[in-house]
Amino acid sequence: MPLPVFYDGIELEIGFRLDLLVNNKVIIEIKSVETLSKVHHKQVLTYLKISELKLGILVNFNVDDIAKGIFRKVNGL
Length: 77
Prior knowledge:
18% helix, four-stranded mixed β-sheet, alpha+beta, elongated
């Protein structure tokens, strides 16, 4: 799902791509890495700030227990 970036009313060509957007309210970012780094968490927060949405979920499928691979991110709450 494309996420355009606007600055001063002009759409920039550095747009981002969301993995999933649920009901135009929740961003879901999917990963399958050995360990999530800070940049993965910051990526979701950046998407939330740009889109002005409130809730994001970061999911890493490369874990033994999926519950330990799900992280909730909020913007401005």
